[in-house]
Amino acid sequence: MPTSPVSSPASSSERTLLETFLDGCRTALPATLDGLDEEQVRRRLVPSRTTLLGLLKHLTYVEVFWFQHAVTGASLRDLGVASTPDRSFVLRKDDSAASLRAAHAAVVEASRAAVAGRPFDDVVTGRGRPVSVRFVHLQVLKEYAQHTGHADILREQLLAG
Questions:
Q1: Under 8 Å CB-to-CB from 120, ≥6 apart: which residues?
Q2: Paired strand residues for 123
């Protein structure tokens, strides 16, 4: 039976629980690249642009979109990310597992800083539609959960092939 990532789920705060589960996903997705070479992490096994490296790049975009764009209102262009979710999967020749892991780690730290000390009920309007800081956390957690599942399946296919 799986164990909870927090020592006392019943007495933990909502923020502690959400941040703990989000951090678990933030670690799990990059870990799907462990032990694979550059060709493997770029290999397309499905008709879409979905690759292990593309998933890491996309989730870096998701972090920026929600924790920086939605919270601060900074433009995606100014933030240096793709203009659409679909474009966030596109890999450049100089993208590598190491460079995208480093970019992801830096963005995660920026995400934490963007909401540090902000109550979950605070409303942010950076993306033009008001949402709570709680919603931002839940939306990003949902994205990680979905795409980490995709990454697990792609990794399984790579290792079996």
A1: 14, 15, 132, 133, 134, 137
A2: 132
Backbone angles phi, psi at 123, to 5 degrees: -100, 130
**Nearest of 54, 57, 58, 59 to residue 40 by alpha carbon:** 54
Backbone φ and ψ of 129, nearest 5°: -125, 125
Q: What is the pTM of this model?
A: 0.92
Q: Could you tell me if 11 and 30 are in contact, meaning their C-beta atoms sit under 8 angstroms apart?
A: no
Query: Strands, DSSP E only, in the chain?
Result: 123-124, 131-132
CA distance 31 to 78: 29
pLDDT tens figures, 23-76: 999 999 999 999 999 999 999 999 999 999 999 999 999 999 999 999 989 999
**Whole-number Å distance between alpha carbons of 62 and 69:** 10
